[in-house]
Specification:
CATH topology of the largest domain in chain A: Rossmann fold
Helix content of chain A: 25-40%
Number of strands of chain A: 10
EC number (chains A, B, C): 2.1.3.11
CATH superfamily of the largest domain in chain A: Aspartate/ornithine carbamoyltransferase
CATH architecture of the largest domain in chain A: 3-Layer(aba) Sandwich
Strand content of chain A: 5-15%
Oligomer: homotrimer
Pathway (chains A, B, C): Amino-acid biosynthesis; L-arginine biosynthesis
Enzyme class (chains A, B, C): transferase
GO molecular function, one term (chains A, B, C): amino acid binding
Number of domains of chain A: 2
Subunit structure (chains A, B, C): Homotrimer.
Chain lengths: ~325, ~325, ~325
């Protein structure tokens, strides 16, 4: 594997899962792979889990790491071609990216959807420039439309916790005060479609995800019907895709609470975090023994390490 | 030792001092202890000495380190339970802490008094949540009411510089333009009470420290009387505890100057730094050969390394 | 070599170049030199290339690194002596510098010209205090009047790309929306004067550099004449030295474009980056095969590693 920006970059999903189980069992067994290798983690946006888990994963593999918070440590970067740069952006990605690539062996990059233009976001203008110009492997630490390290950790976590061959997995929209990108739900649906699970998506009307991510997955607009018999409830807010970037509802009837969880097959509760308590999920649910959000977050180190291991193995 | 949040966490103060002398002599002799161990340093507040000295101490011991500036790198964290999180804090400590704990072996945390509520500050709401929820050892890098790594370095420095068995050590309040927490003086008094020194505290009326830290130590309200015959002068500003968080005086008659130092037994001058020159202490005193503020600060690496060594030795 | 703040600190320029070629060929061959050594990189100003390349160079040599962004991670530092510190700067360089020095073996420091006073800037008040007070070797990561790691990389890059013994090297001023320091052009002229090249400087009237950097180098005010037959074009904006810190011209007739490059001996195009496209240089020139700005930036790792290697070899 060269780059990692979606599930489609994996040569083989089952092999990737096997690698994840291996590195979880023996995190320090592969340090020869990372010796004298350096990963630079570039953040256009804030990060807690991704920052720490990816850096930890790289260090587990014996790599050196450097972190760059673009807008704080450096300066704003221009991404449009052909402009006269007389404004507030002193450097172009066209220079910054290959320069950063020259100082490292792998780049991790986080660049959220900006909600200024659906086209720009869904063309993945920033991460694609990294892939094109950096000269080194690029790992998405959440791009405009996908968060594949999260989805990989989610899949791995379901594998760890499932008690039947083909569990029912429900992705449910939940309310939130602000407009959030579709990266996590897009990526979750795209990824979990590759697994042999029963996948159901539920959300209010107007929150349909982009068709290229949904494929043939049907929406169940009745949240309670969707929850019925579920083995895993994956909650997440996102802003509208069709009315791009808009918050159409903050309806707390969609909050995941104990009453709804009672409709499930004692489902495990999942969320990528950070989560707004008592908006997205009630205290009672997230604090219950069936909540596996911490284990899920801990597995971010595992998915990152599996990805980095696969990339390092192909570096010459 | 599991956690380090006050002098009371040490199994034995004299053994701890001995460990400090050992690691100062041979800082790189214990790298097997930290191999494949990671420390995360979390800052809710700015830091210079603590940031660098603690990170250096961990690296001396062979550990990997990661630094998280909560409000810059990540986002604001909610600390109250039961709230509907529809405001500007996107994540709760109840999730953030165990997640961070899952990526490391030791957490260092800095969370100052916020001066909004004496009760909240003196209950140590933040660091106590770290101890309760993180699942790993927690080291205070200055909490609301104590700064034990500083006090340990202070004690160690006095041991290095003392020329008699039982020196007279004076903690003196000094003026400052802003309201500062009581963590350093609280912690200093609490810690030095455990040593067999003659300890005197001097400050203007209204600046009495909390009784649980003072114990049976008496206040000498006349600063000059307090200085008489002193072997160590430890200067520090703090805001009022009784009129909580208020600046009752900026009286530069309390500034430590050459005239007052002349009353001492050629006392060494100490301060935890950062220090406001010509407010807290005159240029003449801090630039004199009897000023040991730099050596004291250098010993922050030593106290941090001794603490980390003791914790690593008990990690399985 | 003890400190590195200008070309004059090098014991021998040719030996330094030889060291640079060595470390480029074998970046990981000298890790015994950096074992248990720590470099602290201190930034008073933003940085991208310098931050990453210097950290990378130190890690190549087996060193540990710590990064301090003074104004974000810590707090503002007072640099004037004798003041009553009752304002917004809680710590003096007089304490901060030796304390930082006590936690490391080498300090890198970036402190730009502040454009408040030509005298203060040209006396290099900040970096000189680091040299004086830190107790450890100091490496300039761009000071008020010089950027020697950049100039070293520039010289090395010309050596790599030159096709004749004595190439014609042209430093040309170019327009920019904001006032930039003279550090890069000062340092470039001062350094390249030591090499056996034909050096020409061209800029509009009013942009004369300080005489101590120019020495006997003559200015060619006609940019096209200067470009004629050039082998290397080094573009850079700077604010006026005589009308200190002022932008006297934003005349895009000085922009380096294809038409002007056609006057040269198929010159290589250089710039220290970040560069404003279509202000300083046209897209056509910087995207042409003769643009070597990325290779030049990549060589920042090489010059930094050569400097650190020379310093480490003299550390006891």
């Amino acid at each position: 594997m060269r780059h990692f920006t979606s599930v489609y970059d994996l040569p083989d999903l089952n092999e990737a899962l096997k690698t994840a189980f291996e590195v979880k069992k023996n995190p320090f067994a592969y340090q020869h792979l990372g010796k004298n290798r350096t990963m630079i983690l570039i953040f256009f946006n804030s990060s807690l889990r991704t920052r720490l888990s990816t850096q930890k994963a790289a260090m587990n593999l014996g790599m050196n790491t450097m972190v760059l918070n673009v807008n704080q440590d450096g300066w704003q970067l221009e991404s449009e071609l052909g402009v006269v740069m007389d404004g507030d952006k002193p450097e172009h990605l066209r220079e910054a990216i290959p320069v950063i690539g020259s100082y490292c062996d792998i780049i991790g990059v986080r660049a959220f959807a900006q909600f200024k233009s659906k086209e720009d976001d869904y063309q993945e203008k920033i991460i694609n420039q990294f892939v094109e110009y950096s000269g080194v492997p690029v790992v998405s630490m959440e791009a405009a439309t996908r968060h594949p390290l999260q989805s990989f950790a989610d899949h791995f976590t379901i594998e760890e916790f499932k008690t039947k061959e083909k569990p029912k997995v429900v992705l449910t929209w939940a309310p939130h005060p602000k407009a959030l990108p579709q990266a996590v739900p897009n990526s979750f649906v795209e990824w979990i479609r590759q697994a042999d699970y029963e996948l159901v998506v539920t959300h209010p009307e107007g929150y349909e995800l982009a068709p290229e991510f949904m494929g043939d997955i049907k929406v169940e607009y009745d949240q309670k019907k969707a929850f019925s018999g579920a083995d895993f409830i994956y909650a997440k807010n996102w802003a509208s895709y069709s009315s791009y970037g808009q918050v159409l509802s903050r309806d707390r009837n969609w909050t995941v609470d104990e009453e709804k969880m009672a409709l499930t097959n004692q489902a495990k509760f999942m969320h990528c975090l950070p989560v707004r308590r008592n908006m997205v999920v009630s205290d009672g649910v997230i604090d219950s023994p069936d909540s596996i959000v911490i284990q899920e977050a801990a597995n971010r180190e595992v998915s990152a390490q599996a990805v980095l291991k696969m990339i390092l193995e192909e570096l010459k």
